[in-house]
Amino acid sequence: MRVIVVGVLLFLSVGLILCQSLVNEYVEKEINLETNLVNLKLNVNVRNAGDRPATSYDVYFTKDEAAHISDVWGIAGNSGKRVRLSLANDAKGAKVSFRLPTPIGAGETQNIHILAVLTHAVTAFPAEITQSQNQLMVYEGNLYLYSPYTTEKIKVSVKTFSPSIESYTHKKPFTAKSNVISYGPYSNVAPFSTENVRVHYLNNFPFMTLTNVLKEVEVSHWGHISFEEHVDLAHTGAKLTGGFSRLDYQRNPQKSPSHFRLVVAQLPASSSGIYYRDVIGNVSTSRVRVEAPENGEAYTHFEIFPRYLLFGGWKTQFYFGYVAPLSEFLGITKDGLYSLNVPFGTTIVNPVVDQLTVNIILPEGVSDVQVSGVDGLEESRSVRKTYLDTKGRTVVTLKKSNVVGGNTDTLTVTYRVASLSLFTEPILLIGGFFVLFLFIIFAKRFQLTIGQAQKTLKKAKDEALELSIKLQKIDSEIKSLSSSEGETKAASDKVKQLVASFKSEIPEGFSVQARLGAFEKAALELVSQKKGANAKDAKKRGEDYEKAFKELDSEFTSKL
Question: What phi and psi, each to the nearest 5 degrees, are found at residue 495?
Fold first, then answer.
């Protein structure tokens, strides 16, 4: 136990020695209040006064500042490479440890840049204003650099939205010119020193807050990727009081200085099929154009006009989406994994996002799904079934709070997918159309309505009655031929002609071929018997004919 205690004390002693060995030789601190965010920019010349190389540099933020911090970045030397830093809370506040790419040797100096972005760090004062009033904000924070090292010299500048400043802290020496208040220089500032600075200033910048954003990214291996963002938008500046006058606004919009009505999004240059809708339906008040800046990548500039302008305390909801080529976002690693790289944050410019949810909808049949690229995410998995799915698609849900619109982090999702699964949907389509065509073929052969069946039955009865009447007429003619004294050959030919004519008039629905043949045979025997023939034989022929006639006639009368 004593060994452990001694080890801990030794570790803390070494850490204290290392902290004391670094000195903030010269610090320039800028508090930028020009937008709805607070940007703290630190430019520090650090000297290593110890005898060992320093591999990291620590910066602290007060507890009040830490509650509003969204992002912290560090740049060492003149490399220009930004490194995202993470916060760790301790008794002094929130600590940021910047591991330096190049250690600071004993007696050497190095320039370090720290950038922190704070959200909801200014307060409207007054909290409520009328339509024609300007919006005034108050910022309170630490004037000094909250550092574990001694600061030999520090200068501070505060930049506001406009030169209109109601009041500010008078900490000598200071100067105020236009929209910049300069403090210092101050010398020999002790570690963890604080000095409150308060600035009350005019700020009509759009205080655009997205209280909730749901961003959905749907991947299709058939060549495209779909993006859709659902947005709850609020104006979180000074609340409007006293009502809104449309007439006053139409007369002079400049006399309603605290409102905004334009939302801008920057989409990929290859975006297509762009749409914008709200809870009512499609909104046509939007503009799209492709921008190609000289120093940067081309992008699609998408201007969104909500149905009504927004004053403080007002809210609206809408969603928009677009499609882009999959090849710009998807690649294949050396291990045969698919690698999807998409922007994590919202495409809307200059908002504060209180809660951001990103759903990555992957193709059906994926496995070995891994997410990287963004820290501090709350991750969950689910399955969503859409059209032509059998098992459903894997949905990776990522959540993060307190995100700024300028968040340019790239989210990387790697996964595997079986090659044959790509053909599942075409096979289902082909099978579906095949079954549909079979159904149509069989349906055509059935009479499924009662009216049609009754009509068909009536038609069959009419045909049967007509054939029965014709058969009776033929019977009368055959009996007439059998009783005449003419040539038997002529009588036989006449019978064959009558039977052939009758046969041609029988529809396909009557199966009387056998009985019609028996009737024809009996009729020929009846008319071909000679005069003076045996009476018994003549009687039998007559009976055979009558029997054949009745059997044939019953085929028709049975359907009546």
Answer: -60, -45
Residue range 253-288, pLDDT digits in tens = 888 999 998 999 999 999 999 999 988 888 778 899
> For residues 49 and 107, what is the distance between their CA atoms, to the nearest angstrom?
5
Half-sphere exposure of 371 (CA within 13 A, CB side): 23
CB within 8 Å of 328: residues ≥ 6 apart? 268, 270
Output the CA torsion sign for 404, 405, 407, 411.
Answer: positive
* Three-state SS letters, 307-354: CCCECECCEEEEEEEEEEEHHHCEEECCCCCEEEEEECCCCECCCEEE
Please give the share of the chain, as a percent, with pLDDT higher than 90: 52
Judged against a pLDDT cut of 50, whether residue 12 lies above it is answered with no
- The answer to whether the Cα torsion of 48, 52, 55, 60 is positive or negative is negative
Query: 287 vs 274, 275, 305, 321, 323, CA distance in Å?
Result: 10, 11, 9, 14, 17
- Beta strands 196-202 and 136-142, pairing class: antiparallel
Q: Are 415 and 337 in contact (CB under 8 A)?
A: yes
* Displacement of CA 92 from its chain's centroid (Å): 43
Q: Is the dihedral of CA 478, 482, 485, 490 positive or negative?
A: positive
pTM of the model: 0.73
CB 68 within 8 A of CB 401: no
Backbone angles phi, psi at 555, to 5 degrees: -65, -30
92: burial class by Cβ within 10 Å (0-12, 13-18, 19+)?
middle
pLDDT in tens, 65-121: 999 999 999 998 877 788 888 888 888 889 999 999 889 999 899 999 999 999 999
Dist CA 322 CA 360 (whole Å): 15
Q: Which amino acid is at 437?
A: F
Sign of CA dihedral 288, 290, 293, 297: positive
